[in-house]
Amino acid sequence: MIIAIQNTIGALARNKSFKGLLDAYSGAEVAYSLRKLRDAYSGSCIKVRRASDSTELDIGFVSNVLDTASLETFCSGTDGFVSVWYDQSGNGNNLTQTSASSQSQVVSSGSVILENGKPCLNYNINSYDSTYLLNDDANFLISMVIRVDTEQDSNPRYLSLVSSSVNLQIGHNTDDKYFIRKDSTTTVSDSTYTTLGSQNLLSWGATSDSLYFGLNGSNVGFSGTGAPTANSINGNGIVLFKGYTSVSHYAETGTIQEVIIYPSNEASSQVGIENNINTNYSIY
Questions:
Q1: Cα separations (Å) of 146 from 93, 228, 232?
Q2: What letter does residue 101 receive in the DSSP assignment?
Q3: Residue 55's pLDDT band (boundaries 50, 70, 90)?
Q4: Pick from 58, 59, 61, 54: which is nearest to 39 by CA?
Q5: How much of the chain, in percent, has pLDDT values that exceed 90?
Q6: Distance between CA atoms of 62 and 60, rounded to whole angstroms?
Q7: Taking the chain, what is the end-to-end CA distance rounded to the nearest angstrom?
Q8: Fewest Cβ atoms closer than 10 Å to its Cβ: which of 5, 130, 168, 275?
Q9: What 3-state DSSP class applies to 31?
Q10: CA-to-CA distance for 191 and 179, rounded, in angstroms?
Q11: What's the alpha-carbon Rg for the chain, to the nearest Å?
């Protein structure tokens, strides 16, 4: 009896010691990751479809990381693809893709796909959508852990945010420089050259409408502008891995592990957020 009580107390203490990124830096409205980001989050990480029979299963966390054992058991001897990437912010902004041919891969022949030793989604000209709306583009922070290998065209988008008043697209342009396109009237801002084939931590932010960009823990100044073309908007929300729903601009192949969106001025928290992410992924 005493041993059982001690074990219970020990388990509670270990669980209580966990402090996720969103516990340390609250306020995110969108949070997708293959690690647990918030202590109070009790949902699943991803919903996976196995190729052998198209059965789907929610996969959660073990010790605050993706439950790879359950995932590999479910996909034993076959491939696994993600139909839903769950939002851990508590706002229900899940990313979904119902078309099997457009889903990112997470398991290959029964083994979880890894990037730098951590589980990842392997995307290949596919996309995901969410109904989340960024209603104020004057202040925000978007951080993502991504590797871009090849591109479907000369202007691949990693992420688009669309609403009636805000149009944001981030990716890299014809000069292979990172860019952020903010609405249909603001100029395109360019930054340092992209590093294709490498895992990167990218942070795109705005403070009172002043844009900034962080690459692997260092803010890099924008180095050019150009008049953007107007974008035809078809639908509202997040589009991952391509431009707006009426535009292609796919980021063709690569891996992704985390996307977090704060709809607020996070300039003072940017370093801490990036340090937390890098401590987990060991990017730089």
A1: 20, 25, 26
A2: G
A3: very high
A4: 61
A5: 56
A6: 7
A7: 48
A8: 5
A9: strand
A10: 6
A11: 19
The answer to whether residue 279 scores a pLDDT higher than 90 is yes
Q: Using CA atoms, how far apart are residues 179 and 24, in angstroms rounded to an integer?
A: 29
How much is the mean pLDDT over the chain? 87
Tokens of 267: 């300039």
246 SS3 class: coil
CB-based contact 222:190 (threshold 8 Å): yes
CA distance 240 to 257: 12
Looking at residue 169, the DSSP 8-state letter turns out to be: E
**Rounded Cα gap, residues 106 and 168, in angstroms:** 27
- Domain locations in the chain as residue ranges: 24-281
Cβ–Cβ under 8 Å, residues 23 and 42: no
The pTM for the full model equals 0.89
Which amino acid is located at 184 in the chain?
Answer: S
- Please report where in the chains the tokens 């076959």 appear, as a residue: 78
Rounded Cα distance between 54 and 50, Å, is 5
Residue found by looking up tokens 């993706």 in the block: 66
What gap in Å lies between CA 74 and CA 70, rounded to an integer? 6
